[in-house]
Amino acid sequence: MRVNVIVNGEAMTADDVWEGESLLYALRERLGLPGAKNACEQGECGSCTVYLDGIPVCACLVAIGQAEGRSVVTVEGLADGESLDEVQRAFVECGAVQCGFCTPGLIVQAHSLIASTSGVPEDAEIREALAGNLCRCTGYEKILDAVRLAAARKAAL
Amino acid sequence: MKDFAYVSAPDVATAVRAITEPGAKFLGGGTNLVDLMRQNVERPDTVVDITRLPLDRVEELPDGRIRIGAMMRNSALAAHRLIRTRYPMLAQALLAGASGQLRNMATVGGNVLQRTRCPYFVDLAARCNKREPGSGCDAIGGFNRNAAIFGASESCVATHPSDMCVALAALDATIELESVRGVRRLPLVGFHALPGDAPQHETAIAADELITAIELPDLPVAARSRYRKVRDRASYAFALVSVAAALEVRDGVVTEARLALGGVASRPWRAHAAERALMGAPATEESFRRAADAELAGAVAQSQNAFKIELARRAVTATLRQLHLPGGAA
Ligand SMILES: Cc1cc2nc3c(=O)[nH]c(=O)nc-3n(C[C@H](O)[C@H](O)[C@H](O)COP(=O)(O)OP(=O)(O)OC[C@H]3O[C@@H](n4cnc5c(N)ncnc54)[C@H](O)[C@@H]3O)c2cc1C
Ligand code: SF4
Ligand code: FES
Ligand code: FES
């Protein structure tokens, strides 16, 4: 089938798409956006997190037909050219990235948390919001630092 | 995953017509169905995508009941003002389930019909009467730490994993079903079947029926209610045992009680015996424990899950105690 999706603000079309493909597969293998990662393909790790119509979802469990006509924002869409988004910058500055496999999903999920809260969220709130994003390297502490830093900077704007 | 035809339904009439095709299945948020299709546990010939149906609102009906559209996403329902204020146990149960991303995807209808998390159900090399009737049950005598303690049979000991449904059972919710044959309403309590000798029959829904809505009664006692979930880690894990409870106490005496347990049976387990024991009893720790005992008297353990019986007893007692404390309600 043919699928039309608005990805990071740009209308994109893919042809000869198999019904059984996921949005994640289409983004990575057909649309040239390898940011969202494929780790578990079961909704368990969050490394495939993207915005679908403004709401973070696990792209690995979105059947491609469900994305037809919808708007997707991936980690690639958060930066403005070479200029990183506040959350991305905080991850770099806080050393919240080791192997980096979980990072794109965490950044999208953290971006959504910060966009929907005012001020710096409580630790419990950050932990709950990021519970669906698994990281095997960092032990999460630096990730929490990064989220607090990005939230504090946004609150100070 | 095998090949299938994909149909997106713009309205209910199209959806219920499309589902009459042999081998057709509805697709909600896909968090369970897509996963099971990928593992070849579900093998539909046609997938009818219902996420574009205009059934994604919460409405207050003139008589005070609440109508929840079946396509409403779990996170949106949990955040809804009417749900948070009038049925806090339901908002808490939704937020205790899965992760933020998954709650953003999961629909109310899909949550009701989600399949068990018994590990053998998704292991095609294992024997499983639910997946393959008559093949046997590897959970009996096998890995059954999270199996049922109520209503299990010699063919299946699996649990229904939903948190949301436990609150819906305590609240006496109604399920609205629609097909080309018409509309009918069923109580949620009893909608999910006990396994008996046919664990493949999981609910009272017919193959051609669409869940269109869930209705909640106007239930003042529910404003003082709570959902407590006990699991292996603080977040993002299925329940070992969970409790949905509402309590009304007047002059130190229980005048109304609603109680349901999760993680303990193939259905959300409405605790009628405990409710009866509570009615008219003094609102004390001892009454709460006695009510828990009354319910758990019927519990039967598998080889690895005896701990659930004591865990359930304590979880019930603690939830009631918490509700009764001043400021203890949600
Ligand atoms: C990693 C992970 C962790 C999870 N943790 C929890 C947890 O802690 N607690 C919990 O409660 N749940 C948990 N879940 C399960 C999750 O809540 C369910 O997968 C979800 O609610 C299913 O909803 P859906 O809309 O995605 O359903 P789908 O996957 O789209 O469908 C599920 C089933 O329902 C049918 N269906 C869907 N909608 C309708 C309808 N309106 N009418 C008729 N049939 C319909 C489908 O045909 C399919 O058989 C978890 C899931 C995952 C992947
Ligand atoms: S408990 Fe039920 S679902 Fe699990 S293996 Fe046995 S029959 Fe299958
Ligand atoms: S790859 Fe989607 S949640 Fe793990
Ligand atoms: S940095 Fe390696 S998984 Fe998170």
Automatic annotation (TrEMBL), chain A:
All residue ranges annotated as the 2Fe-2S ferredoxin-type domain in the record: 1-78
Superkingdom, taxonomy of origin: Bacteria
InterPro entries: 2Fe-2S-bd (IPR002888), 2Fe-2S-bd_dom_sf (IPR036884), 2Fe-2S_ferredoxin-like_sf (IPR036010), 2Fe-2S_ferredoxin-type (IPR001041), 2Fe2S_fd_BS (IPR006058), Beta-grasp_dom_sf (IPR012675), Diverse_Oxidoreductases (IPR051452)
Molecular-function GO terms, alphabetical: 2 iron, 2 sulfur cluster binding; metal ion binding; oxidoreductase activity
Record flagged with keyword DNA repair: no
Pfam short name (any one): Fer2_2
Keywords: 2Fe-2S, Iron, Iron-sulfur, Metal-binding, Oxidoreductase
Name of the protein in its database record: Carbon-monoxide dehydrogenase small subunit
Organism: Acrocarpospora corrugata
Automatic annotation (TrEMBL), chain B:
Keywords: Oxidoreductase
Transmembrane annotation, as ranges: none
Listed InterPro entries: CO_DH_flav_C, CO_DH_flav_C_dom_sf, Diverse_Substr_Oxidored, FAD-bd_PCMH, FAD-bd_PCMH-like_sf, FAD-bd_PCMH_sub1, FAD-bd_PCMH_sub2, Mopterin_DH_FAD-bd
UniProt name for this protein: Carbon-monoxide dehydrogenase medium subunit
GO MF assignments: FAD binding; oxidoreductase activity
SMART domains attached to this UniProt entry: CO_deh_flav_C (SM01092)
Domain FAD-binding PCMH-type: residue ranges: 1-221
Alphabetized SUPFAM superfamilies for the sequence: CO dehydrogenase flavoprotein C-terminal domain-like, FAD-binding/transporter-associated domain-like
